[in-house]
Amino acid sequence: MTSSKEIRDRINGIAETKKITSAMYLIASTKMRRIRNELEHTRPYFDALRAEVRRMFRAAGSTESKFFFPDDNAVPRHTGAIVITADKGLAGGYNANVLKAADKLSERIPGLKLYVVGEYGRRYYAQQHIKIEDDFLFSAEDPTLHISREICARILKDFEADKLDRVYIIYTDMQNGVEVKTTRLIPFHRAAWPRPEEDPEKPSASFEYMPSVAKILDNLVLSYVTGFIYSALVDSYCAELTARMEAMNAAGNNADELLAELKLNYQRARQAAITGEITEITAGARHKRTEAK
Fold first, then answer.
1. Is residue 201 in a domain?
2. d(CA 264, CA 154)
3. Same domain, residue pair 252 and 238
4. H helices within the chain, ranges in order?
5. What is the value of pTM for the model shown?
6. Confidence band, pLDDT 50/70/90 cuts, at residue 206
7. Would residue 133 count as lying in a domain?
8. In whole angstroms, what is the distance from residue 125 CA to residue 180 CA?
9. Same structural domain for residues 230 and 281?
């Protein structure tokens, strides 16, 4: 039978672990509120930018650009994917779900070039001996517009150098519930944007773009892709924090159940020890009375 001291040591150890999980829960919730506020402050700009691109699509007619209107029947030669994972674990199935989606895309597209954000994903591919872009070292924690611009610049540099002709991004979306999404980032297709009859914005006058719609669209790509990547990074980070909060909350509940069971066992062990001591004292006293007689 387990001694009361061993049970007491286990109780103390679980209580200390619960303190850690509670602290991690509070830290994650604080970080999530802050990063969501930052996204809400920047989202209107990128929403307005997207609306302006839709407006230019209506004016463009048939615009030739390597970033727009690709031939979907063409077989891509060099496809890349930005895979957004976390820097660490303890987040439930968050990382596993992202990596599963990346593996499915790799099976569908042989030779997929992987641009991995987050140390967890880099460790995973290193353990699997799967080649990734080693110099693409970006952290998933505390995403900023500066990091998003750097990622965008690197991707567009490879795209313009013909090292890539199609790029996907795999991230966790928080807008419509936690969901892992695989989205084509570039090049854009007209079908990805609302058609004129579906677009509620009806301009009251025609617009003239100088020097041309194609040139302006090419210049807007950096801002638009940066905004998309930033939104994906923030949504993924919020999903990671949410998963970590749920994991820590579940760990705290399990700790409470274990503590309740251990405390009950501790009380039983103490009662058994006290009963044993009383029995020994009684037996000793009886033995002395017998000897006295």
1. yes
2. 59
3. no
4. 4-60, 94-108, 119-127, 145-160, 213-292
5. 0.74
6. low
7. yes
8. 19
9. no
